[in-house]
Every structure is written in structure tokens, then in C-alpha cells.
């Protein structure tokens, strides 16, 4: 009896002590706000087994291999940092640098918790083979079993060993595409509506080469000026016109086709040569950067141009009557159907997890957190309810958000923007803010007009050789050679000279190693189609 009483007293004592300690832990800020050693130990697999156990705050190191990227963790001033800290108890220590710096880190084996790099960089393959990063097909099922990674992402980024090691941003997963989505393209053409009205030109004139030339002649002959600048008839570029004219990219047997060697490529150079000869296309179109052409567009001195990335919002701010509208696409001689290359469907960067991390479970949960549907919108526009809210399915900014950006855009970015390295554009596209002015409306119309011709180009994106390969060096030499010869063809004295220069190129390219490069292109093209379960990639073959 005495023994039973003693055991009962001991049980009550232990229970009381446990209750007191639990209360202390609940009140102790370290349990939710410090990265103590005991806190690190508590972040293992058991952390999610009991919802009532508070998760200690940890700091994860994240290297971004982009020299321009600078970001400090600032939950006191950045709303998304504050939200992440409160939601999952994670702080991020960002560092950045060049790919060369990443190579040095790989050589020393010093890979942090997370690393982000261009998904075409040679260092990606080195990391996949190094053993320094964790296969995500092992990490995520174990620590974030509810996270769904589209099969196309897994297949697209699958390494030679059968694993995939990273997650991209801005990837267009075909299986997630709906009627609310589209493939945006940079292959566009815009024309000044106010100047067309002044000269009696219809946008339909730009449906053909002949109509385009006639319209541009009217501009040249009118000797128009705008704000003291002479109007340049056109800035047209090869990369856009070759798609307008419809060069094949895959043959009937499913082999990769080099567009540059197609008849439509010669047609483009003859067309550009005619424009240059008639002074409808300036010589500096061969040398100016996109930013420099955009300066001219925003100064009001350009009538027509191709390339979506060149924007005209600066011109609109100073003159709301000076607007650009979509025109074309220009059909080539054969009247080929339009099939345009979209902006990269395979994403821009890839984010990997370092094998030395002490926080596998927490890293997995971070990846899951950043991959949530609404998180892509919040990463771009700030927390829902503070920076924006839904209005009939579209993002509508709050008055405070608009005031902050009107006052100081840089400061507003630092206040609202979150971590964009896992943004999924398919979550953003259907909810994108509706236009609020004529510039935004016409840009939306232009994007819709040209994107109707876009198609899934993932197999074509896979052919580019990565740095360090012999084929990459050959590719660079051939690209430089083609750029040089392209300029000569545009500036040629006659159409016959254009044709002679074009026909002389294959033999010179053979000397540069073209056959080896083409073999790489075709092999990678076919491997990728097989990965994606595609027999043919070119729409005309499907």
C-alpha cells in the first residue's frame, strides 16, 4: 500500500513539473523566434507530427547566381518577409554572385541550403552530378507529401541518373494549361495609330510584304517629324520576320530543322535588304540594343517596329494620343501558316537544395509554401488584402498600394515584393490586373493578337548546348558568323548579292563544325520529345 502511495505521489509530481515546463516553453519567445541549437534539433521530421508544437524560427542560406540580384531579409519593412516569418517561421539569408562564384562554391563543396541559377547554365549539370544537391523526388515526398509537382517539370528537369533536382520559375506546364491560359510571345509588330490616321494607312496594309513597303514609303515620303525628331519608318528584325514568314522547324520524319537554312530565311534577308535600300530601315537597326531602340520609340521617332520587349509606355506618358496598335503579322511569299515561338516555356531559373542542409524538412516546407497558387500573386504584388484583392477574378490593387507606387516605386518594391524564384506564371496569368489606361489596354490587345499563334516549343528549347560543351563553342562561333553575314546581306548592293552571300554560308559553317552541332540539336530534340511523350513538335506535323 505504501509503495502504491509513493508511486502515485511521484506520478503527480512528474505531471505537475511537465505542466509547468510546458507553460514556460509556451511563454518563451525562443520557441518561436530564435535559432538556438535546441531549436535546430527540433526542426527535423517530427516537427509536423503535432500541430500544437510551435516551430522554432530558423535561418536558411540562399545563394542566387545572378550578380544583379540584391535582397536583404527585412520583416520589419517588407510585408512578404513578415508574412513568411509568421506563417512558417523561416528567415532567409540571401547572397548572390556570378556563375563563376558558384563554380568556386561547387569546387569547395560549400553549397548552402538553397541555390538558384539559370536553368541553362553548365553549373546545373555539375551540381546534379556532384552529389551536393538533394533529389527533389526523394525530399518532397518525404517532407512535403501533399506538394504536387507537375509531371512535365519532373520530366523536363530529369537528370541522367533519373532524378530531378530543382524547381523552376515561370515554367508553363502543358498539363496545367486551361482555356484561361496562353503562351505569350515576343514575336509582335506595332504601328503608330495617330500617324496611320494622318497618312491614311490601314493596319491591314501590314498583312503582306507589298502592303508593308507601300505604307512605309508613305511615311518616308511625308518627311514626318515628331517633337523635333524625324520619323524612322521601321525597325524590323530577322528573328521576328523569320517566324512571320513561316520557316519550318521540324521535317516530316520528326528531325530538327535549322530555320536559318530554310528558303524563308533568304526571303527575310531580301526583304530587309529592300527596306534598307529604299531607306525604310535605318542602318543602326543592325547595331542598336533593345534599350536604345526603345529610347527612340519613347521619343516618338519610330513609326513601326517588331519585338514585344520594346515598350512605348514612356511615349504614352508624355502624349496620350501617340499610341501603338498591333499590325500584321506579315505573310511571306508562300503564305505559310503562323507558328510563333513563345517566351521561354521551360522557365528561367532553377532552385536546388544543398545536401549539407541541416533543415531538410523545413526547406521542403518552404518550397511547398512558395509554390502555393496564391503565393505567386503575393510574391509579385504583396499580401492579399493589403496590396491587392480579387475583383471578378482579377487582381485589383488597394489604394495604399497605388499611392505607394506613385510616390516611390523603388521603396514600394521593397515593401511589397516577395521571393520570386518559384513564381508560377500560370497562377498569375488568369488573375492579372485589368488595364487601367489606353497603353495597358492596347498592350493587352497586342499580346492576345500575336499569342494566338504561339505553340508549345519545349522540345526546341532543349537543343541549346550548355556551356563547357564542345558544341557550345561551335554554336557561339556559328551565331557570330551568322550575325556578321546577316549584316552584310542587309547592306548588300543588290538582291543577287544577298543570294550569293546566303548560298556561300553552309560551306563555311561546315568548317566551323556545323555537322557536330546539328547532330547535338537533333539528338536533344528527339530525346526531349520522347521525355514529353510527343511524336512531333511542329504544329504542321501534328
TrEMBL record:
Signal: is it a keyword of this entry?
yes
InterPro entries, alphabetized: Bact_solute-bd_prot1
Cross-referenced Gene3D superfamilies: Periplasmic binding protein-like II
What keywords are annotated for this sequence in UniProt? Signal
Source species, domain of life: Bacteria
Q: Where is this region: Disordered?
A: 26-51
Task: Tell me which PROSITE patterns the record gives.
Answer: PROKAR_LIPOPROTEIN (PS51257)
Record-given protein name? ABC transporter substrate-binding protein
Q: Where is the signal peptide?
A: 1-22
Q: Does the keyword Cell wall biogenesis/degradation apply?
A: no
Amino acid at each position: 500500500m505504501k509503495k502504491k502511495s509513493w508511486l502515485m505521489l511521484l506520478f503527480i509530481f512528474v505531471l505537475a513539473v511537465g505542466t509547468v515546463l510546458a507553460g514556460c516553453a509556451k511563454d518563451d519567445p525562443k520557441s518561436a523566434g530564435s535559432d538556438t541549437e535546441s531549436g535546430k534539433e527540433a526542426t527535423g521530421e517530427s516537427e509536423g507530427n503535432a500541430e500544437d508544437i510551435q516551430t522554432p524560427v530558423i535561418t536558411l542560406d540562399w545563394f542566387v547566381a545572378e550578380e544583379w540580384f540584391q535582397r536583404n531579409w527585412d520583416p520589419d519593412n517588407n510585408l512578404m518577409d513578415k508574412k513568411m516569418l509568421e506563417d512558417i517561421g523561416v528567415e532567409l539569408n540571401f547572397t548572390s554572385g556570378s556563375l563563376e562564384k558558384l563554380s568556386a562554391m561547387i569546387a569547395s563543396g560549400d553549397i548552402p541550403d538553397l541555390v538558384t541559377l539559370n536553368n541553362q547554365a553548365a553549373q546545373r549539370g555539375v551540381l546534379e552530378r556532384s552529389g551536393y544537391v538533394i533529389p527533389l523526388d526523394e525530399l518532397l515526398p518525404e517532407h512535403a507529401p501533399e506538394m504536387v509537382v507537375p509531371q512535365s517539370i519532373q520530366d523536363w528537369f530529369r537528370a541522367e541518373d533519373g532524378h530531378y533536382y530543382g524547381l523552376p520559375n515561370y515554367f508553363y506546364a502543358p498539363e496545367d494549361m486551361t482555356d484561361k491560359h496562353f503562351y505569350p510571345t515576343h514575336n509582335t509588330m506595332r504601328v503608330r495609330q495617330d500617324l496611320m490616321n494622318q497618312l491614311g494607312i490601314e493596319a491591314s496594309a501590314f498583312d503582306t510584304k507589298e502592303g508593308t513597303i507601300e505604307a512605309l514609303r508613305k511615311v518616308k515620303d511625308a518627311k514626318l517629324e515628331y517633337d523635333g525628331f524625324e520619323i524612322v519608318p521601321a525597325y524590323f528584325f530577322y528573328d521576328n520576320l523569320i517566324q512571320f514568314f513561316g520557316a519550318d522547324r521540324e521535317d516530316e520524319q520528326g528531325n530538327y530543322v535549322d530555320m536559318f537554312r530554310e528558303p524563308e530565311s533568304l526571303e527575310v534577308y531580301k526583304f530587309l535588304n529592300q527596306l534598307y535600300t529604299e531607306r525604310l530601315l535605318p542602318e543602326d537597326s543592325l547595331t542598336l540594343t533593345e534599350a536604345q531602340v526603345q529610347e527612340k520609340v519613347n521619343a516618338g521617332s519610330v513609326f513601326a517596329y517588331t519585338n514585344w520587349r520594346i515598350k512605348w509606355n514612356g511615349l504614352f506618358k508624355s502624349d496620350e494620343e501617340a499610341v501603338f496598335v498591333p499590325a500584321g503579322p506579315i505573310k511571306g511569299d508562300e503564305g505559310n501558316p503562323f507558328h510563333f515561338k513563345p517566351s521561354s516555356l521551360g522557365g528561367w531559373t532553377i532552385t536546388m537544395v544543398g545536401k549539407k542542409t541541416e533543415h531538410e524538412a523545413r526547406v521542403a516546407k518552404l518550397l511547398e509554401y512558395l509554390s502555393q497558387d496564391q503565393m505567386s500573386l503575393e510574391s509579385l504584388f504583396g499580401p492579399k488584402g493589403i496590396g491587392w484583392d480579387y475583383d471578378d477574378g482579377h487582381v485589383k490593387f488597394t489604394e495604399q498600394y497605388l499611392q505607394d507606387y506613385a510616390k516611390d516605386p523603388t521603396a514600394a518594391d521593397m515593401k511589397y515584393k516577395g521571393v520570386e524564384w518559384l513564381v508560377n506564371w500560370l497562377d498569375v496569368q488568369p488573375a492579372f490586373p485589368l488595364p487601367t489606361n489606353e497603353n495597358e489596354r492596347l498592350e493587352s490587345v497586342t499580346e492576345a493578337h500575336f499569342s494566338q499563334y504561339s505553340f508549345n516549343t519545349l522540345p526546341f528549347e532543349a537543343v541549346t548546348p550548355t556551356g563547357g560543351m564542345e558544341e557550345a563553342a561551335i554554336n557561339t562561333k556559328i551565331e557570330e558568323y551568322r550575325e556578321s553575314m546577316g549584316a552584310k546581306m542587309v547592306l548588300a548592293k543588290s538582291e543577287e548579292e544577298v543570294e550569293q552571300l546566303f548560298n556561300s554560308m553552309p560551306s563555311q559553317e561546315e568548317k566551323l563544325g556545323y555537322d557536330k552541332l546539328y547532330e547535338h540539336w537533333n539528338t536533344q530534340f528527339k530525346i526531349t520529345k520522347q521525355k514529353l511523350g510527343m511524336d512531333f513538335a511542329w504544329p504542321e506535323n501534328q
